[in-house]
């Protein structure tokens, strides 16, 4: 007999897989299929009529587990369609008790007790008669619970409890392996110095977004090329440790300025950075680029010592930023193959960056349109 099962959609599931700063980019194993399979396997391992997996929110969780909410992530068996996504308080029900105590729990006569909670038990298609829960543990931290329920049949015995404990360990290990795989993939696409995305992932993501737009999707995309001004002079005078710390601080400023945008900041190499601004036209991109330029100019770099006996340099106005800007709708030739459009956008943004350098640095320049002049913003007068 086929057991009906459901799981949170990927866009919502990503938040609950955000263990140790994991992003929602899926790896080779689709997490929704993975979790659905695990929950269905629980019913094979310990005979029961239904199973439900609940996880806490790793972004909002507190150390006191009794204060955290659990969310129904996946179900198998006789549940209402509205079950997935329901929130449960740990102070209510067997699922929350199992999570808060970090111990397996069995109740064979539910009656006054609840499988989930007073509000959430309505997700079951029929009243629960017995329930068996085990905690889900990842890296020694309890992060949820797996609960088996019987709505018509009998209760759970000691053998069921032992088997469920074994399956709980297997589930925790499987989740850990999935997260380790995702973490490894994430590390591979990150720059080791700044923790921004690296150039390899930048090229992959840029091509994906251009393919989407070339395929008829609405919206626009703006590309920023950024280059740190005067970093070589700081390296020569103060050493490469100082230069490396400046690059880290540049990455921090970038992320802070881009926090309200849908964007992908990357370290392109050396002292060059790139930013893909999604759903952003040229005018909007120029405004964002100008905010970045101004923020870098106003930032005090190296406010603290970078080593024993080294003074805090407190460099303000020394490190500035030159930026080149190009957008898909304005600067890519319609009808060209997407791979050629990508190269076209890269070349035009890069050319705009070199124009910014030639104009005295610390400015924002948009790429030329065919037959038209570039656009300039905020050229800093040399003193």
Question: How do the strands and helices of this protein lay out in sequence?
Answer:
Layout: E1 5-7, H1 10-16, H2 31-45, E2 50-56, E3 70-77, E4 87-88, H3 93-101, E5 105-107, E6 130-138, E7 141-150, H4 158-188, H5 199-214, E8 221-229, H6 231-238, H7 240-257, E9 263-269, E10 272-278, H8 282-298, E11 300-301, E12 315-316, E13 320-327, H9 328-331, H10 338-358, E14 364-366, E15 375-377
Parallel strand pairs: 13-14
Antiparallel strand pairs: 1-3, 2-3, 2-7, 3-4, 5-6, 6-7, 8-10, 8-13, 9-10, 11-12, 14-15
Quaternary structure state of the chains depicted: single chain
Classify the beta-strand content into a percent band.
15-25%
**Biggest beta sheet attributes:** 7 strands, antiparallel
**In CATH's first tier, which class of the largest domain applies?**
Alpha Beta
Number of helices: 10
Q: What low-confidence regions span 5 or more consecutive residues with pLDDT below 50?
A: 19-28, 378-383
SS class: alpha+beta
- Work out the radius of gyration: 27 Å
Provide the CATH superfamily of the largest domain.
GAF domain
CATH-derived topology of the largest domain = Beta-Lactamase
Named CATH architecture of the largest domain: 2-Layer Sandwich
Report the helical percentage.
25-40%
Element pattern in H and E: EHHEEEHEEEHHEHHEEHEEEHHEE
How far the N terminus sits from the C terminus, by CA atoms, comes to: 80 Å
Mean pLDDT: 85
Shape: elongated
Tally of distinct domains? 2
Give the strand tally: 15
